[in-house]
Design brief:
- The chain is 17% helix and 35% strand.
- The chain is α/β, with parallel strands linked by helices.
- It has a single domain (11-58, 75-139), classed as Roll (2,3-Dihydroxybiphenyl 1,2-Dioxygenase, domain 1).
- The strands form 2 sheets. Strands 1-4-3-2 form a 4-stranded mixed beta sheet, covered by helices on one side. It has a 4-stranded mixed beta sheet with strand order 5-8-7-6.
- It is globular and about 45 Å long.
- The N and C termini lie far apart (33 Å).
């Protein structure tokens, strides 16, 4: 019997090149409140999950050490579930900050099919903004 029972994504740690730009993006634009700052680790609440930011240029010398010594990208994207999804309003809001939609469409996620848009953060990481799931009968299509 497998003793591991995953309930949700707990956190993701992103290596960032400019902490000020990343804080502005995650805190001010996406609305993730600051949870804690400790020894080079900047943590922001994303609903029930957490987004941690670590500056790459200070990674080797910072009090907070990452598990990896590589700076190369090793994440394709991560998804943030939104409580509601108005694509036109999202696009208009992000446009004010010079953020463009990289791709959009109906995507499958942890709760089933639903709408989503992909944007990039200041370091080029893809962030999927995922809408609520469709009704169950639509998920079978």
């Amino acid at each position: 019997m497998n003793p591991i029972h995953i309930k949700k994504l707990d956190h993701i740690v992103l290596l960032v090149s400019n902490i000020a730009k990343s804080i502005h993006f995650y805190r001010d634009i996406l609305g993730c409140p600051e949870a804690r700052v400790s020894k080079g680790l900047f943590q922001y609440q994303a609903g029930d999950s957490m987004i941690d930011l670590v500056v790459t240029e200070h990674k080797q010398n910072a009090p907070y050490k990452t598990q990896s010594s590589q700076i190369d990208r090793n994440v394709d994207h991560f998804a943030l579930t939104l409580s509601d999804f108005n694509k036109e309003a999202i696009i208009a809001y992000l446009k004010k900050f010079g953020i463009r939609i990289e791709r959009s469409g109906r995507r499958f996620g942890a709760q089933g099919y639903g709408p989503s848009v992909y944007i990039k953060d200041p370091d080029g990481n893809f962030v999927e903004l995922k809408g609520p799931p469709e009704e169950k009968e639509k998920n079978n299509n």
